[in-house]
Design goal:
Keywords: Chemotaxis, Cytoplasm, Hydrolase, Methyltransferase, Phosphoprotein, Transferase. One of its GO terms (molecular function) is phosphorelay response regulator activity. It catalyses: [protein]-L-glutamate 5-O-methyl ester + H2O = L-glutamyl-[protein] + methanol + H(+); L-glutaminyl-[protein] + H2O = L-glutamyl-[protein] + NH4(+). Belongs to the CheB family. The structure is a single chain. The protein is α/β, with parallel strands linked by helices and about 350 residues long. It has two domains: about 120 residues, Response regulator (Rossmann fold), CATH 3.40.50.2300; about 190 residues, Methylesterase CheB, C-terminal domain (Rossmann fold, 3-Layer(aba) Sandwich). The chain is about 35% helix and about 20% strand. It has 13 helices and 14 strands. The strands form three sheets. A seven-stranded parallel β-sheet has the order 8-9-7-6-12-13-14, sandwiched between helices.
Length: about 350
């Protein structure tokens, strides 16, 4: 039997701490080693109890969770899952926490839904405890090319746990006139709106939440808005966005599988990419795209926070190859640029 995942619960609310503990105590994979009511208490208990992963609230007395997270990632990096009313409302705090290095952010349940709270927290903590915590500090990202010319291929990207940082890295390498790009990131609706707002001033292309009927144009990146709809593509000479109401797929809404499968009629005109994430969403849809003529690849294990979705895509042959995060933007642009078709003919 593998060792249990050691969890420290950090929250100023005794009610929430008790709810989390009761949810986790019933799982044999988890050992709750302690609780802390504020970051100062947490700091001492991290030293003495040596947890594998923390749950951390944003709003706490004496020092807020974001400030503590920043210090923790700089001085003693470790896996952290943020749990907060602030993140549940989709505030910028959730995205800031993910950008600082939190593995995932989930919301506290509403007062009238406490019994339903944290149903999947144990699964998340087990995965988070084994995730790769990125090293703090600035990273070198290749500058976007100044002479990019789009060749007509559309870009589809799926991501989950660790995706905020990965997507920012990829999109920072896109030029202003990048290929039309659709992204499905597993995240609650409010978080996705905040994520789009965060990215807008940081990247050269335009980025927005996808809307019904929006045309796929060069220089435009669309992010799945989440909520009750999946992001799909309406094929044709001028493909457009479609928001498709439906049940969760592969446990998610928005789902990467749904996005990828919608593009199968124009697969030869697509480049599909799977980034870091837990689970297997996107692998089957990518396999269908590759079979129909799309170019496909996945983020490699060494640079993935969680090598779940990319691993499955590679194992079933959906992804042609694994690519390090720092090279993904360049690989996309090479396949979607004017010279790509000529290079592929030579290679054949």
């Amino acid at each position: 039997m593998t060792s249990q995942t050691r969890v420290l619960i950090v929250d100023d609310s005794p009610t929430i701490r008790n709810l989390i503990r009761r949810r986790l105590d019933g799982d044999p994979r988890i050992l709750v080693v302690g609780e802390a009511s504020d970051p100062f208490d947490a700091r001492e208990k991290i030293k003495s109890l040596r947890p594998d992963v923390l749950t951390l609230d944003v709003e706490m007395p004496r020092m807020n969770g974001l400030e503590f997270l920043e210090k923790l990632m700089r001085l003693r990096p470790m896996p952290v899952v943020m749990i907060s009313t602030e993140t549940h409302r989709g505030s910028a705090a959730a995205i800031e926490a993910l950008a600082l290095g939190a593995i995932e952010c989930i919301g506290k349940p509403a007062a009238d839904r406490l019994p339903e709270g944290f149903l999947h927290l144990a699964d998340l903590l087990v995965v988070a405890a084994r995730a790769r915590v990125r090293e703090p500090g600035p990273r070198t990202i290749a500058a976007p090319p100044g002479d990019f010319r789009w060749n007509g291929r559309y870009v589809l990207i799926g991501s989950s746990t660790g995706g905020v940082d990965a997507l920012e890295t990829v999109l920072t390498g896109f030029p202003r006139d990048c290929p039309p790009t659709l992204i499905t990131q597993h995240m609650p609706e409010g978080f996705l709106a905040s994520f789009a707002q965060r990215l807008a001033p940081r990247i050269a292309p335009k980025i927005a939440l996808a809307s019904e009927g929006a045309p796929l144009l060069a220089g435009q990146v669309y992010l799945a808005p989440g909520g009750n709809a999946h992001l799909t593509l309406i094929p044709g000479e001028q493909p457009r966005c479609r928001l498709l109401a439906g049940d969760k797929r592969s446990g998610h809404r928005p789902s990467v599988d749904v996005l990828f499968e919608s593009a199968r009629p124009i697969a030869p005109r697509c480049v599909a990419v799977i980034l870091t994430g837990m689970g297997r969403d996107g692998a089957e849809g990518m396999a269908a795209l590759r079979e129909s003529g799309a170019r496909t690849f996945a983020q490699d294990e060494a640079t993935s926070v969680v090598f779940g979705m990319p691993r499955v895509a590679l194992e079933i042959g959906a992804a042609e190859r694994a690519v390090p995060l720092g090279r993904i933007a360049g690989e996309i642009l090479a396949l979607a640029g004017k010279d790509a078709v000529a290079r592929e003919r030579i290679a054949r």
